[in-house]
Design brief:
Blueprint lengths: L1 H8 L4 H12 L3 E2 H8 L3 H13 L3 E5 L4 E5 L2 H26 L9 E5 L1 H13 L4 E7 H4 L3 H9 L3 E7 L8 E3 L3 H8 L3 E6 L3 E6 L7 E5 L2 H22 L3 H19 L3 H10 L1
Parallel strand pairs: 5-6, 6-7
Antiparallel strand pairs: 1-3, 2-3, 4-10, 5-8, 8-9, 9-10
Helix pairs in contact: 2-3, 2-4, 3-4
Length: 276
C-alpha cells in the first residue's frame, strides 16, 4: 500500500500506520475493536495507541465504561508534519553550514555508475538550477529529464546546447547535423551537462547498468566542457546557415580535418618518423 510505505518513510512503524489509517476509515473505536479491524495483536494495540497519542495523531476519550479513540484530522496531521520537518531541515542546514567550509576550488572527480543513478542525480541538480543549464544530450536521456527541465524553464533558467535526436520540444537546443555518422563512429551515446557553471557531468549513457559519468565542480573541467558545447553549437549553427553548395564544401573540409586528426596517412607517418 503506497500510503503506508510513505508513512513508514517518515518514521512511523507498520502498526502505527495500520492503526491510524484504520481510524480514518472508522471512528471512534475502542482498543479491542481497533485491534480486530486493523490486524494489530491485542497485546500490542495499547502500546501502539500510546505512541500515536504522544505524537498527537490520535486522541483518547474516556467514559465510565470504555475508552475510545479518534484520529487527528488528516489536514492538521499533515500540516504538523510539514512544520516539524521544516524546522528539522532548518536546524540541520544551520548546524552543518557552520561545520562545513566550502573550498575555493573543488577539483574532486566523482564517478557515478548506472544509468538510473545518473538520471536521478541529474534530476536533483536540475531541480536546483538557478541560472543556466548547458547540455549535449540525446533524445533517450532528455525524455527522462523533461519534467525537471520544464520546471527549470518556468523558474527563468536558460537552457542551451546540442540535441542528438530527430525532434525536440526545446527550441533553445540545436539539433546535431551528423547523428548517424556520430553513432557509426562512436557507437555510444555520450552526455555532457553543466549546471550554473558550477557542476559538470559527462560520460557514457548508452550502457544501462554499466553507464558511467564523472561529476565534478573543478573550474578547469567545467570551462573545457562549456567550450566543447559552445564549439559544437558554432559548427552546427554555421553549417545550417549555408546554401547547399557551400554546405557540401564545408562538410568536405570538416571531414578532411577530422580524418587528419584521427587517422595517420602514410605521408603523415613518414613525416613523424623523420621528426623523431
Amino acid at each position: 500500500m503506497r500510503m503506508m510505505m510513505d508513512m513508514k518513510t517518515l518514521g512511523f512503524s507498520e502498526y502505527e500506520c495500520k492503526a491510524y489509517l484504520k481510524l480514518l476509515e472508522e471512528f471512534p473505536l475502542n482498543g479491542y475493536a481497533l485491534s480486530k479491524a486493523s490486524g494489530i495483536p491485542r497485546s500490542r494495540i495499547y502500546e501502539v495507541l500510546k505512541n500515536l497519542i504522544d505524537k498527537q495523531m490520535v486522541f483518547e476519550q474516556a467514559d465510565e465504561k470504555n475508552r475510545v479513540y479518534y484520529p487527528m484530522e488528516p489536514k492538521i496531521f499533515i500540516q504538523k508534519l510539514k512544520v516539524h520537518y521544516e524546522k528539522l531541515f532548518g536546524d540541520l542546514s544551520e548546524y552543518t553550514g557552520k561545520l562545513y567550509r566550502e573550498p575555493k576550488q573543488d577539483d574532486k572527480l566523482v564517478v557515478i555508475s548506472g544509468r538510473d543513478n545518473i538520471i536521478s542525480f541529474l534530476k536533483l541538480l536540475i531541480n536546483g538550477a538557478r541560472e543556466r543549464v548547458a547540455v549535449s544530450i540525446w533524445e533517450e536521456e532528455i525524455k527522462e529529464l523533461t519534467e525537471e527541465l520544464d520546471a527549470a524553464l518556468d523558474r527563468g533558467v536558460m537552457l542551451r546546447g546540442i540535441y542528438f535526436g530527430k525532434k525536440t520540444a526545446y527550441t533553445s537546443l540545436t539539433p546535431h547535423r551528423r547523428i548517424d555518422r556520430y553513432m557509426a563512429e562512436k557507437k555510444e551515446r555520450y552526455l555532457s551537462i553543466i549546471i550554473d557553471h558550477t557542476h559538470a557531468i559527462s560520460g557514457i549513457m548508452s550502457r544501462d547498468a554499466n553507464a558511467k559519468v564523472t561529476w565534478t565542480r573543478d573550474e578547469g573541467f567545467i570551462a573545457v566542457s562549456e567550450d566543447y558545447i559552445a564549439h559544437d553549437l558554432v559548427v552546427n549553427l554555421y553549417s545550417a546557415s549555408l546554401d547547399p553548395d557551400t554546405y557540401k564544401k564545408f562538410e568536405a573540409f570538416a571531414d578532411n580535418v577530422h580524418d587528419h586528426y584521427f587517422h595517420y596517412s602514410k605521408k603523415d607517418l613518414a613525416t613523424y618518423k623523420r621528426l623523431i
